[in-house]
Write a structure and sequence with these properties.
By secondary structure, this protein is an alpha+beta fold. The protein folds into 3 domains: about 1-85, no CATH class; about 120-130 and about 275-350, no CATH class; about 145-275, no CATH class. It contains 7 helices and 17 strands. It has helices at about 1-15, 15-40, 40-50, 70-85, 95-115, 160-165, 355-395; strands at about 55-60, 60-65, 120-125, 130-145, 155-160, 175-185, 185-190, 215-220, 235-240, 245-250, 260, 265-290, 300-310, 315-320, 325-330, 330-340, 345-350. Strands 3, 4, 5, 11, 12, 13, 14, 15, 16 and 17 form a 10-stranded antiparallel beta sheet that branches. The protein has a 3-stranded antiparallel beta sheet with strand order 6-9-10, with no helix packed on it. Strands 1-2 form a two-stranded antiparallel ribbon. Strand 11 and strand 12 (about 265-290) form a beta hairpin. The longest helix has about 40 residues, at about 355-395. The protein is elongated, with a radius of gyration of 34 Å.
Length: about 425
């Protein structure tokens, strides 16, 4: 047993493993770059870098073909740590190398935490509009809203991943049960021909209430392109204590929620982008889109907003422009784009608790390289000084010939 463990340790700390993993990393980056044309940046990240194994589809089976980013990065991290524990002895002359490797370790851990924790949203605000939430780029949620009170809405949000399982949902705030009958991650809507219950070839369970009484959803291929969106649709049945309340078609295609009444209360149901509410709001005061004189070349994108906390503790103006984001409440707001004839700003909102780790890693690696260069430079200068002193002393002595001198013989006439 000890022999097996020793062999595993030797493999883990070997330089050969390091080289193999670095080659695997280069292959991953190259393959992901090529496949980005087909899948888009988000799907490429999930398939190649945020996975342990990369699979390919062979008919009905998924075959593993290559280690993913988590596997390669995890082994690199283990290899680096094990090499320092078992092979490297601490010495001041190697302190720069240790700092550089420590920075690399922090960078690998930071990338892992970023993949696990980072959330991306977008915030669209028109001039004069106020919002206290951002929306996801890709994830949706099914919402049932109690809109009886005119002063506020009581919202129950169900993630689309849970709806996709078609599992009945009974929430404590809802007097009815939600039973998904069909879920399409991407879909299109079209009118149902008059006098028919379904379109020929359409296998979607029929909706009989609201929009679904005259509109049908059809599945579409899922897209992974960064410039396209998946628009899901759900056929869902509401069942109360006395029996079914109706079957609704809710879809991301529909801009407005559908309204119904039950037990004397007003309810709304919709499928929308997942929202992240915040304890503060942003009001767009002015969006500026400046161009260079006489051209259409953009010179500046900037958003002047008012940030107001819900508890009144903060109320100030902020300016967001390229390379100058707003960091507030654990979020970072970047200027990302504009719409609506320069009246609507689009901000990218990022939550990443580990955002400082890449900066710390780069600082450690830079410091390590400077220290290591300084150590070698100091050693070189120290070794060179005696040689220079010796050469200088030798040059200062009078020139004495080693040839024997012959006595001068006087010449006679």
């Amino acid at each position: 047993m000890k022999t097996v463990l020793r062999e595993m340790r030797d493999v883990l700390v070997s330089l050969k493993l390091t080289i193999v993993l670095l080659v695997f990393s280069m292959v991953l980056v190259f393959a992901a770059t090529l496949d980005q044309v087909n899948l888009g940046i988000w799907a490429v990240q999930e398939k190649y870098f945020r996975s342990f194994v990369i699979y390919t589809q062979a008919g009905k089976f998924a075959l593993p073909i290559f280690p993913g980013g988590y596997a390669v990065g995890g082994l690199l991290l283990a290899n680096l740590i094990a090499a320092h524990v078992y092979r490297f002895a601490f010495a001041w002359r190697k302190s720069g190398i240790l700092l550089t490797h420590l920075g690399l370790i922090v960078l690998l851990i930071g990338e892992l935490l970023t993949g696990l924790w980072q959330e991306d949203f977008h915030l669209r605000v028109t001039e004069g509009e106020t919002k206290n939430y951002a929306e996801s780029f890709r994830q949706h949620e099914l919402v049932v809203i109690d809109a009886t009170n005119a002063g506020y809405d009581d919202v129950v949000a169900i993630p689309d991943a849970l709806v996709a399982r078609k599992t009945p949902v009974q929430h404590a705030k809802l007097p009815f049960r939600l039973t998904p009958k069909a879920y399409y991650p991407n879909s299109s809507l079209h009118m149902r021909p008059k006098g028919t219950e379904a379109v020929a070839g359409d296998t979607t369970p029929a909706a009989n209430t609201g929009v679904g009484s005259h509109v049908v959803a059809s599945p579409q291929p899922v897209t992974h392109r960064s410039d396209e969106r998946n628009l899901p649709s759900v056929v869902i049945e509401l069942v109360g204590a006395a029996g079914p309340l109706g079957t609704y078609l809710v879809s991301a295609h529909l801009p407005q929620a559908q309204t119904f009444t039950h037990e004397g209360r007003t309810w709304k149901i919709a499928l929308r982008l997942k929202r992240a509410y915040q304890p503060f709001s942003l009001t767009l005061l002015k969006f500026s889109h400046d161009r260079y004189a006489g051209t259409d070349i953009p010179k500046n994108f900037s958003s002047r907003l008012r940030l107001a906390a819900a508890d009144g503790s903060e109320n100030r103006e902020v300016l967001i422009y390229m390379n100058n984001p707003l960091r507030h409440g654990g979020l970072t707001f970047y200027q990302a784009g504009f719409e609506n004839d320069d009246r609507t700003t689009v901000l990218q909102v990022v939550r990443n608790p580990s955002w400082l780790m890449p900066y710390i890693a780069c600082a450690l690696m830079t410091l390590g390289l400077v220290v290591q260069f300084g150590v070698h430079l100091f050693g070189f200068v120290r070794r060179r000084r005696p040689a220079v002193a010796t050469a200088t002393a030798a040059a200062a002595k009078p020139n004495q010939s080693t040839r024997p001198r012959h006595p001068t013989v006087p010449q006679t006439a």
